[in-house]
């Protein structure tokens, strides 16, 4: 990426894990809407996402809703709230069948074996399960002993996402996350020994003290671990949103030119290592389900990243969890204590959300296609939404500049993101975002 392009596009832009993005959620959508919208899932097979907002200790780079929590009584109370929320959903949608199950956080293992098993059993007792669907869990390799591995097997986990971020010691000190290659390899060996063969590794570039040279060593070490998938995210430095990031020295962060070089390095090394590029920031083995979905044009994007599911709905459980429902998005209260109080009172804990309009659905489909396949037939999408592609495109003021900058090629109403534009696809999506002007300063940088 040349200096002119970097200078032009080194600014904030959404990650587009949804459209509209969470920056547009508002308090007019709450528990009443959430319960009513859940009813639309009676004949669907949504993913269930369980959010555990606790860690043993905090990493400074993390922008997730999580807190350090080690008190057993507090963790047990949170598990009881999750089970009660499962009951509330079951009462609202008695005919719902569960597809994939995803445990995220935070660090799900922090909930403890007894609590994890109890929540999983409650979910299994209240809902039928679609045959062949995955159960995945985010795992911190530093806290992955034999007991926890046995627990994962007991609750049916068959895919694990290992948080690595970076193996360089100076980088790890700068983000308060010390994690050796040896500890990570040992955890992976235990997982594989237990018969859990699907393993992902999560990395981050743009971290403090990180350079292309240190990142190259991390990539080599990660490749030696031979996971099925990689997710390699650009670090989002948003200290105005997450106070813990203020502990990171701003001057230690790599500049835009270095970040661009790192993004290019990631793509080169992982493709050379035998992985297929999936969307903006995922990589998978050629025979992996993500690769197959991408090849067939069936890749989807959600708050959990790129997914190979036909049913895009998500039922989010837990504090701050987001549900993606046919009529819109809802998000639970972020504070675990307030979340538990609402659930224990027999009410859904939805604090905010957004009801989708016809225009949102049209623009959302365009953005998802660009994020997943880097191309879109605007005439086809607009026709299915009852709109005119010609009049719609005339309103997209940024499109001519994107074409001029070489990020997009246009053939009539068909758009193709170029190889030059691929790392900047979020800016292409932003051209179709009617809400972006009202969310300035709410997003991370696009390079």
Q: How is this structure best described in words?
A:
By secondary structure, the chain is α/β, with parallel strands linked by helices. 37% of the residues lie in helices and 19% in strands. It is built from 16 helices and 21 strands. The protein has helices spanning 3-9, 31-38, 72-92, 113-126, 146-154, 169-175, 181-193, 212-224, 256-272, 289-295, 336-344, 358-373, 378-384, 389-394, 399-404, 425-430; strands at 47-52, 54-55, 67-68, 97-98, 101-105, 128-129, 135-139, 159-165, 198-205, 229-234, 276-278, 282-284, 300-302, 305-307, 314-317, 322-325, 328-332, 350-355, 375-377, 408-411, 414-417. The protein has a 9-stranded mixed sheet with strand order 11-12-10-9-8-7-5-1-15, with helices on both faces. A 3-stranded antiparallel sheet has the order 16-17-18, covered by helices on one side. Strands 19-21-20 form a 3-stranded antiparallel sheet. β20 and β21 (414-417) form a beta hairpin. The longest helix has 21 residues, at 72-92. The termini are close together. The mean pLDDT is 94.
Structure summarized in a few sentences:
The chain is of the alpha/beta class. It contains 16 helices and 21 strands. It starts with a helix and ends in a 17-residue tail after the last helix.
